[in-house]
Design brief:
single chain, 434 Repressor (Amino-terminal Domain), Rossmann fold, 6-stranded parallel beta sheet, 11 helices, 15 strands, 39% helix
Length: 342
């Protein structure tokens, strides 16, 4: 039995849903539990009735199974993902919950097979990292009383979707202001993919700092990479081989900054004497490379733990203070930046 917002707290039984859909009670139960052995047309009819009745399953108060949190990445082969995992683990351990870890192979939206498996697991909640759900998937989770939170949303978040991110625009602004303050005027930027909101926000911060200083963005000085070393390396080579090469490059991730530094070395340029480089994320490795990297600290572990606490809050039937939380970034100045030569 559950409650329906159709009439305040009027109870709606699975039997009533089954009668309205013209199916058996076990069939409705199979749909609610994500079982695959239901015909597509039947599933769609039951889902439609569930939506019409605003059905939302009430979670059992006690369970012999440990609570599960599904942590879903669009990609996770990097130290960036490791920081997110650590943040979720720390928060989940406080609630004695286990984590189910998966990735979407570079996709930003789960495939149907993966989503059906998730429903069959019946987790306490779901955390999506640079991934999103369509309206139907959001409804199916809500109907089953499974809360979800998005970390570092790929696109503009849908209204009411709990989201945790960082102040990407402010980070881009701070990085560029730092380079301007050192005297650089030919500043290029290599951001991440254009389809990611964080990438575009960092570019907007970069553009705002240049506009504030009365400096136009040079043609070809804004590039969109892939957040990985290859992207920074390839764009770095292209920028630094140009006739009017930049004296500074702001990379939209620490990995891209490492790629830029390698490109500079291959072309016989010294960092920071010939080229200043700023990264983004402040991964642990940035303190140990030569020279140590100036970067914008994105509080990845804090973002992940905040999202996890939001999931537990929602699972208790409570609302977090805000559906959208953006944590502050911080510029960490190390040895990869200095005033331009001459």
């Amino acid at each position: 039995m559950s409650t329906s917002s159709n009439g305040g707290t009027r109870p709606v039984s699975i039997a009533a849903i089954a009668k309205a859909a013209g199916v058996s009670v076990p069939t409705v139960s199979k749909v609610l539990n994500g079982r695959p052995d239901v015909a597509a047309g039947t599933r769609a009819r039951v889902e439609s009735i569930l939506e019409q009745q605003h059905y939302q399953r009430r979670r059992a108060r006690k369970s012999s199974r440990p609570a599960l949190i599904d942590l879903v990445f669009h990609e996770m082969h990097s130290a960036w993902a490791t920081e997110i995992i650590r943040g979720v683990e720390l928060a989940a351990a406080e609630e004695r919950a286990a984590i189910v870890l998966s990735e979407l192979g570079g996709e930003h939206r789960p495939r149907r097979e993966w989503f059906d498996d998730l429903l069959a697991r019946g987790p306490l909640g779901v955390i999506l990292v640079l991934a999103e759900l369509d309206a139907g998937q959001r409804l199916r989770l809500t109907t089953r009383g499974i809360p979800f939170v998005v970390v570092d949303t790929a696109g503009e978040p849908s209204p009411g979707v709990p989201t945790v991110g960082s102040a990407n625009w402010a980070g881009g602004l701070a990085a560029t202001r730092h380079l301007l303050g050192l005297g650089h005027r030919r500043i290029a930027m290599i951001s991440g993919p254009t389809d990611m909101l964080c990438s575009r926000a960092r570019v907007d911060g970069y553009r705002s700092a240049l506009e504030e200083a009365g400096i136009p963005v040079r043609p070809g000085f804004v590039r969109y990479g892939d957040f990985y070393m290859n992207g920074g390396h390839n764009h770095g080579l292209d920028l630094l081989r140009g006739p009017d090469r930049p004296t500074a490059i702001f990379a939209g991730s620490d990995f891209q900054a490492l790629g830029v530094m390698r490109a500079a070395r291959e072309l016989g340029l010294s960092v920071p004497a010939d080229l200043s480089v700023v990264g983004y994320d402040d991964l642990p490795v940035t303190e140990w490379i030569g020279p140590p990297l100036t970067t914008v600290r994105q509080p990845l572990r804090e973002m992940a733990s905040t999202a996890t606490h939001m999931v537990f809050t929602l699972a208790r039937g409570e609302r977090p203070p805000s559906d959208r939380i953006d944590l502050a970034t911080e510029l960490i100045i190390r040895d990869s930046t200095c005033p331009p030569a001459g």
